[in-house]
Amino acid sequence: MKNIIVGTDFSLGSEKALSFGVMLANNTKADLTLLWVDDSPSELATFEYQEVRKEGQEEIDELVKKYEPLLKTGKKINTKIRKGRTYRELTDFAEQTPDSVLVMGTHGVTGFQKYWIGTNAFRVIATANVPVITVRASHNTEKKIKRIILPIDHTSVTLNKVEKASQLAAMLGADICLLSINESGLRSVQKFVDVNLNKAANTLAKKDISHIIEHVNSPNIGKAIIEHINSLQADLLIVAVELQEKTRNGMPSALMQQLINFSPVPVLSIHPNIE
Fold first, then answer.
1. Quick one: average pLDDT of 225-230?
2. Could you tell me the pLDDT band of residue 110, with boundaries at 50, 70 and 90?
3. From CA 20, how far away is CA 175, in angstroms rounded?
């Protein structure tokens, strides 16, 4: 991770995302960029458009003034303004930036954007070929990440997020809880879960990443994962992106939306095709 990109709409949620980005930059020595997408209507008169841009730039300047002194690496907060559809501009910029992670807030209503979580955060997660961290306004963003929850299920793609998780854990000096999940409760399914669990544990052991293993057998996996986050005092949840089936909008699955909406810690979403 060399570049942290924080998307802002100037809401409380996105300011918390910037606070989290600063904490992450301090612990990874990555560069930090604050990005605002101007999605104002093209029908605006010239003077109205200039006012929007001016106000946006003033908001960015205030955020930089507030958070740049908190960077312990001696680096500056880079800023960027792009024009267009929010989720497309965020994903395009992140994908054009080498070895990047995109950080977004998930709540807030402002004069610039309306509903960040419903229209933009989920679309970014569904389409971005970079890791995406979502941060709720209620999260404690100054706390260092010491424990990461990594759910492991019966599918073949569940192991694709282990490499990124181990890299991040090594950079942060964090341990990982491998959370074995079986929604069906079937023993035949558990056999596949156990195979994946052993592979994940072996990968972490080879990389000398401290880890523990917990098991969840529940028809309500989302609730069970959140309960384990609380009981284990975890600081980050890492999930693989799953999209809804039989839909045209390509939105994240109901489980992913539940976790992103209600997780007591930030959620790092990784597409299965990300190396």
1. 94
2. very low
3. 19
